[in-house]
Amino acid sequence: MPIPTIEWKDGKIKLVDQTRLPADFRYIYCGDLRSLWQAIKKLKVRGAPAIGIAGALGVLLVSEKSKRKNFKSYKREVLSSIRYLASSRPTARNLFWALERMERALLSNKKRDVADIKTILKKEAFGVIREDKEICRRMAGHGAALVRKRDRILTHCNAGGLATADYGTALGVLFEAKRLKKEITVYVDETRPLLQGARLTSWELKKAGIKTILICDNMAASLMAEGRIDKIFVGADRIARNGDTANKIGTYSLAVLARYHRVPFYVVAPTSTFDLNLTNGKKIPIEKRDKKEVLEFGGKRIAPAGIDAYNPAFDVTPHKLITAIVTEEGVLRPPYNKSIKYDETKRYR
Ligand code: MRU
């Protein structure tokens, strides 16, 4: 059973501090909005679905603490928390999806007493967590059907239990394949600059008893050329209406390599990661992070003084390079502008 990455505990948000893993497994408790915002920004909690859950619980935190009795001032307080949390990280659609969900729950109940709305928001936030758990299991089932016995699979970043409330997205597929005794081997990209692959994915796979081989990001091409990779599974932070997919920087280069070497390239993501307002991936906001993350390694400077750096946290893989997108609703195949269902509500259907 996966460890709870993020949960509501005695009026606070309890989360695994992912910046300390794997050396140190420690929970932190966020009892105010500022500390939660910092935890998201500094990747103590990270991964698209987990950030969404953090967002929903952050709104709950403010709602529960609010002393306002009249709707107008209570609403102002809650909406301002939503705006604040939305400013923490720009790329993962799930954060905005969860915040919009909390906002809808607030605004569609404005005729009720504040005390009742508080209960409704609590239910909504807990619903986001409960649904995420169910969705992870469903994606895992659909994705595992794509895995053959003894497949050698490459993954990037961390799309595991740590990035969700439960089983993970791409890693959920691998956990399910293991459960089905498919005897897989997983190659893990270390994922520079912050090493989510080396630190987090290897840690999760080892705990699950899956044969795991860590590689540096720049080794993927030669492994594919040697015929050592059968499939690639990655997660996603935001998927546009045409299937273009933003995920951790380095995902795009894997997809290009996969096409050249004829290796199937799968994205695994819940429908809450789809942004159907965006017709293509060019419009996905890409987070630029502190240059220090590139210039330093483990807090120690590695580049000479005076050297500049560039640090986009995500890249966009064009839909043409994606073999299929595994969602909780099933496996979507190209052409994605047909398989990704779209209606006037601009939500995935
Ligand atoms: O910067 P991070 O660590 O939050 O980036 C996470 C990723 O890119 C994951 O692959 C993505 O969120 C999918 S998580 C199920």
Helix and strand layout, with pairings?
Elements: E1 6-9, E2 12-16, E3 27-30, H1 33-41, H2 48-65, H3 71-86, H4 93-107, H5 114-144, E4 152-155, H6 170-179, E5 185-189, H7 196-207, E6 211-215, H8 220-225, E7 231-234, E8 238-240, E9 245-248, H9 251-260, E10 265-268, E11 274-275, H10 292-295, E12 296-297, E13 300-301, E14 314-317, E15 324-327, E16 330-332, H11 336-339
Parallel strand pairs: 4-5, 4-7, 5-6, 7-10, 8-11, 10-15
Antiparallel strand pairs: 1-2, 2-3, 8-9, 9-14, 12-13, 15-16
The structure holds 5-S-methyl-1-O-phosphono-5-thio-D-ribulose.
5-S-methyl-1-O-phosphono-5-thio-D-ribulose is lined by residues 43, 46-49, 92, 157, 159, 163-164, 168-169, 196, 235-237, 247-248, 313.
